[in-house]
Amino acid sequence: MHIFHRIPELRAHLARFDRPAFVPTMGNLHAGHLALVQQARPLGDVTVASIFVNRLQFLPHEDFDSYPRTFEADCAQLEAAGCQVLFAPSEPELYPQPQRYQVQPPPDLADILEGQFRPGFFTGVCTVVMKLFQIVFGQSKGGGHAVFGQKDYQQWLVLRQMVQQFALPVTVHGAPTERAPDGLALSSRNAYLSAAERAEAVQLNQALRSLADAVMGSVGGAIDLAALEQQTVARLNARGWQTDYLTVRRCSDLQPPTATELAGAGAGGSHPGQLLALGAARLGRTRLIDNWVF
Ligand code: PAF
């Protein structure tokens, strides 16, 4: 695997390829990231990953400084997964001056859910991904492919729409969430959990599935969704969680479903796979997110 820390060297190397397949990451890799690399490999003529902990997407009180940085182990895992090129820029390389030109995603998609609790998060994500795309795909002849995990469902949707609206020559792919045997979604932040918290952590997924099951079990959409969501939050909080949100939304735009859409997902309904339950909640000092499509 070729490792580049500087933009010109990476560009010179990538100039000989037509269609990179790219997996942007913040490092501290786990099986979920490696599944993204596996998915990327057949899509392009060179498989590229990046590792960059992007300060722009962290709020001042969040875990930018303590975010796990495990470069050597990440390199070994990427190489074993068949990644051919790693771009790992320093902060001054990617942001030599303060990044004053930023990508502002639409508020109806980016200021809800994660964006409500992490203001500016998606601006930071879109800005760094736009910049990484310019660097990785800037010299490719046939555009390229990028793969993101659907655990971060809202991020995947925001980035897909960014690519579409800016007519970027990139196809965005989503990879299904990788889970531990008990159902916990794999995440770099799981490393923060104590043993007791790790045993409890799967309850977020259980709560989302119970919300989905209640909607799927309802007949003709006859369900008080807001009350159901509140009860689910109360149950999780009673176990010691602090829930930011737990809600059922449309997969296409993350807006609340209409009664007809609820009925379509309910018992005897004919539209499975169009809604999802999403949640974010804090267990101790660890904030976890997950979602469940149904
Ligand atoms: O999902 C992540 O790891 C990050 O948000 C991303 C897409 C690499 C941008 O920093």
What distinguishing features does this structure have?
294 residues; alpha/beta; Rossmann fold; Pantoate--beta-alanine Ligase, Chain: A,domain 2; six-stranded parallel sheet; 9 strands; globular; binds pantoate
Layout of helices and strands, plus pairs?
Blueprint: E1 2-4, H1 7-14, E2 20-25, H2 31-40, E3 46-51, H3 71-80, E4 85-87, H4 91-94, H5 107-110, H6 114-117, H7 121-137, E5 144-149, H8 153-165, E6 170-175, H9 195-201, H10 203-217, H11 225-238, E7 242-250, H12 259-265, E8 275-283, E9 286-293
Helix pairs in contact: 7-8, 10-11
This protein binds pantoate.
Question: In words, what does this structure look like?
Answer:
By secondary structure, the chain is of the alpha/beta class. Helix content is 38%, strand content 19%. The chain has helices spanning 7-14, 31-40, 71-80, 91-94, 107-110, 114-117, 121-137, 153-165, 195-201, 203-217, 225-238, 259-265; strands spanning 2-4, 20-25, 46-51, 85-87, 144-149, 170-175, 242-250, 275-283, 286-293. The strands form 2 sheets. The chain has a 6-stranded parallel beta sheet with strand order 1-4-3-2-5-6, sandwiched between helices. Strands 7-8-9 form a 3-stranded antiparallel beta sheet. Helix 7 (121-137) crosses helix 8 (153-165). Bound molecules: pantoate. Pantoate binds next to strand 2 and helix 7. Residues 24-26, 54, 57, 125, 128-129, 152, 155 line the site of pantoate.
* Annotation field: number of helices: 12
Task: Report the major sheet.
Answer: 6 strands, parallel
What is the end-to-end distance?
Answer: 39 Å
Beta-strand content bin: 15-25%
Bound molecules: pantoate
CATH topology of the largest domain: Rossmann fold
Overall pLDDT metric = 96
**Helical content, roughly?**
25-40%
Question: How would the global form be characterised?
Answer: globular
Low-confidence stretches: none
* The CATH fourth-level homologous superfamily of the largest domain: HUPs
Output the CATH class name of the largest domain: Alpha Beta
The sequence of SSEs as H and E is EHEHEHEHHHHEHEHHHEHEE
Give the strand order of the largest sheet, numbering strands 1, 2, ... along the chain: 1-4-3-2-5-6
- Please count the beta strands (DSSP E, at least 2 residues each): 9
The Rg value, from CA coordinates, equals 20 Å
Whole-number total of structural domains: 2
> Which structural class do the helices and strands define?
alpha/beta
Q: In the CATH classification, which architecture of the largest domain applies?
A: 3-Layer(aba) Sandwich
